[in-house]
Amino acid sequence: MKVTFKSWNAVAFWRWDMPADDVCGICRNPYESTCSKCKYPGDDCPLLVGDCNHSFHMHCIFSWLRQESSQEKCPMCRQRMSFNGLPRCLIQEV
Amino acid sequence: MSNQSILRITRELGEIQRGSDLSLAVACRDIDVRQVRALIIGPPDTPYEFGFFEFAVKFTKEYPTKAPSVTAVTTNLGRTRFNPNIYAAGRVCLSILGTWRGERGEEWSSAQGLESILISIQSLMSSNPYENEPGFEDANSDYDKKNQEAYVAKIRHETLRISVIERLEDYLGIGQERVPGVTVHNVEEDYKNGTEKLFEPFKDLCKRRFLWYYESYLQSIEREAKRHKDGDRFEKMPFEGPGNSMDGTFQYSSLKERLQAVYEKLNEETLSWAIEGQTTVQKEMSIASNLQRQFEQIVENYKENNDSITLDLELVDKNPFVWQLVIFGRPMTNLDGGIFRIMIYLSPKFPNELPRIKFETPIFHHRISKNGVLCYNPTRKDDMKSHIESIIEAIEEESPAYDPRTLVNPEAAKLFWGTADDKKIYNRRLRRSVQDSADFC
Predict the structure, then answer these.
(1) Considering the domain B284-440, what is its CATH architecture?
(2) CA triplet B261, B264, B265: central angle to 5 degrees?
(3) Domain extents for chain B?
(4) Residue B105 C-alpha, separation from nearest chain A C-alpha, in angstroms
(5) d(CA B40, CA B26)
(6) Class for the domain spanning B2-266
(7) Which residues of A touch B1 (CB under 8 A)?
(8) Which of B7, B65, B113 sits opposite A63 (nearest CB)?
(9) pLDDT at B307 over 50
(10) What are the pLDDT digits (tens) for A1-36?
(11) What are the residue numbers of the active site of B?
(12) What is the C-alpha separation between B385 and B323, in angstroms, rounded?
């Protein structure tokens, strides 16, 4: 028997490389979902892992760091928030 | 933008409400989730033991970036400072709220939330609150030791008088005219919406808990009455100032009478549900048919599942608001051979008012008070099947997690959680009461 594919659709599934039931400490939404402001997960609402190893939705952590009272510290461990050694001001916001 | 705070508050409220922490409760009106009411049950082994302390929590649009504001509501209308950090005017001094200069790393952050705030407030309610006052952390002179004791003594009295007895008297309409407060804070104004009544989300919860803890309240009144004569004035603490203190006199004899009056009135209320219920049956109201249907389904369900526990459920006088449950102790357990008759009284306002459970058969059990009140926590409040399952679970559970908020029978609990020998005595007394239960029925 000979089978001929006329067309095919690839379906892929992706997820963040994070424990499944973890939530963002700021919005308390799952990492798999978006921050409270976004509609579509993924590149539109990326995650950011600080050098202290705490991760947040990028929008969530930036809205916290923009506050003067945050003193640019991680909300979880209160160390100075940096990403790959770079402070926030050098990271370009999407 | 504004949605962000609402989504998170809603999520947090849901988590606390679904959670199993018996020491916290939260509620809000549908029209505004940013105005939250929270109730903290005073921690056991402190002078705040089993008191009902209410707080108003106001969130802004900037939450969680900015902390909410918290105001104490249980202040005797602005007259009583319950803690060095909880002022008579309602102010709560707490570094994570930004109302107190904190150490670095104690300030608000967006990873904090409603639950962490409430737990922080709860931790202020300690067994020695005197040392909460700045400058008195290590105060240990004889003068301070005397003060510490006097402070605990008056907090205990006012916890019972204001947070428990007066609250319940208000709920039940047991009225004495009260002098209006000196400084009336404006918390209520935020809640008043035209002609709407005051927001009282914890009425039923406090009534239920009062029944659980009645024996503890009574014991503590009787114990303290021996130490503090009626009419003795409260000591003034060095950090208490005009308009921000805890003044008054010990009145344990009258507290005891008032406590007993509240207890009786609550029992009257429970019994009145049966009559009110009958009226709703005659008027063919939906609550009556709802309960009738739930009853029939549960009976049907237990008939089909023969392997589960043996029980017998019927309506008293065909009234769907009064159920009689007979449980036969499961073989090979501590309850083997026992027959327990349990009355379940349902309110016409079910499930906003939860059922009240009374063991008619005497039993010595750490989850059942001397008066037969069972301490249990249903997972689904509107589903009577879940109530019955939780009742069975509460009496059968052999190695529960320690939770001092479930200690409704102080004597039994002390043995249950005591040494190995105590536990043996507990088991012996439980077994004996189980054996006697068969004769009782």
Answers:
(1) Roll (3.10)
(2) 85
(3) 2-266, 284-440
(4) 6
(5) 9
(6) alpha beta
(7) 37
(8) B65
(9) yes
(10) 899 999 999 998 888 888 777 899 999 988 888 888
(11) 93
(12) 12
